[in-house]
Amino acid sequence: MKSFCFRLGVIFVALLLLGSLGFATPADDLLSSGRLNEVVTLLANRGDAASLNLVSRAYYAMERWDDAVKYGERAVNLEPQNAEYHLWLAREYGRKAQDAKAFAAASNAKKAKNEFERAVQLDPSNVQARVDLAEYYTEAPGFMGGGVDKARDQASQVQRYDEGMAHLILARIADKQKQYPEAEAQYRAAIKLAKNPADMWLQLADFYRGQGRFDDMQLAVHSAMAQPDRKAESYYDAARELYQGGRDYTDALQYLQKYLASGKLTESAPAFRAHYLSGELNEKMGQSSAAASEYQASVKLASAFGPASEALTRLGQ
Predict the structure, then answer these.
(1) How many CB atoms neighbour CB 163 within 10 A?
(2) Quick one: pLDDT at residue 165?
(3) pTM of the entire structure?
(4) Are 134 and 186 part of one and the same domain?
(5) Is residue 17 scored above 70 in pLDDT?
(6) Domain around 13
(7) Buried b (16+ CB within 10 A) or exposed e, 85-114
(8) Taking a C-beta distance cutoff of 8 angstroms, is the pair 64, 24 a contact?
(9) Which of 167, 232, 240, 284 has its CA 20 to 30 A from that of 308?
(10) How far apart are CA 76 and CA 82, in angstroms?
């Protein structure tokens, strides 16, 4: 549900590259449309930081954490003053930590913390970097540099730029501390103050799902989709919530169809992910042929995305 901003320089360099190769597609379109095979093929052998960062993000989207970290580190080494590159490397270390064994997990988690902090140091007004750092502080134990006081400090800093996101941080802290009524109140405050209320409704839906309050989750999703100025990616996020909550699969599929047809795809919800989720929904509904078609569409866009290939094997394709 997070929207990641591109630096103008990244787009400019990638545009020059693609133009020289006979392509007119901007780099952000390649990522958001889920054409990750093209990103890797076109950019992996280049030596500039912008290209390496884009490749790292492509591997991140495909859940290839080792490759994402490798290219992310190279981008940061080339441009150590670029906050956005540090932010992406932090995310890549963080996801690698989640899949690693204990010792490696701790090492990568600490690297993620250092990179988040460096991103904030380099760009104090980067709200998303501060939100991600606050999430690390909220979830990590003290011996790994975590702490809710640190997370609350980030909420105070974010308050100057985006009040809704500040309340989101406080909601996550309260949830972590099992102060569920306070968490719900903070989510609702975030909705009232949010620049994008639909996204905060979906954050609340996610909270309700975690609490097992599936009827409330369903209502929150519907409230999100009733917002007049919602972003196109809300369709994807709503579909994902309904799938994970086991509700309204038909509506979820319709949301994904609307998203894919919107022409406003985003990096945080790339097309190959939307096709994969459509496959999961169809499979849950017993539509094996339709599920296989969606998984194939996902693999065609991002061949290194293992879950889609595994799903096709499961279906005997």
Answers:
(1) 16
(2) 98
(3) 0.86
(4) yes
(5) no
(6) 1-103+117-123
(7) bbbbbbbbbbbbbeebeeeeebebbbbbbe
(8) no
(9) 232
(10) 7
In-domain check, residue 305: no
Other C-beta atoms within 10 Å of 188: how many?
15
Provide the number of structural domains found in the chain. 2
Same domain, 7 and 99: yes
pLDDT digits (tens, 9 = 90+) for 210-255: 999 999 999 999 999 999 989 999 999 999 999 999 999 999 999 9
Q: Outline where 25-126 has alpha helix (H).
A: 27-32, 36-43, 49-61, 65-78, 83-98, 102-122
Q: What is the pLDDT of residues 174-205, one digit of tens each?
A: 999 999 999 999 999 999 999 999 999 999 99
Statement to judge: residues 128 and 98 lie in one domain = no
Note the pLDDT tens digit of each residue in 75-134.
999 999 999 999 999 999 999 998 877 678 889 999 999 999 999 999 999 999 999 999
Look at the alpha carbons of 305, 307, 311, 313 in this order and tell me if their dihedral is positive or negative. Answer: positive
69 and 143 fall within a common domain: no
CA distances from 253 to 69, 157, 235, 274, 275 (A): 33, 39, 10, 10, 10
The residue written with tokens 């994008």 in the block is: 196
Assess whether 157 and 92 both reside in one domain. no
One-letter amino acid identity for 33? S
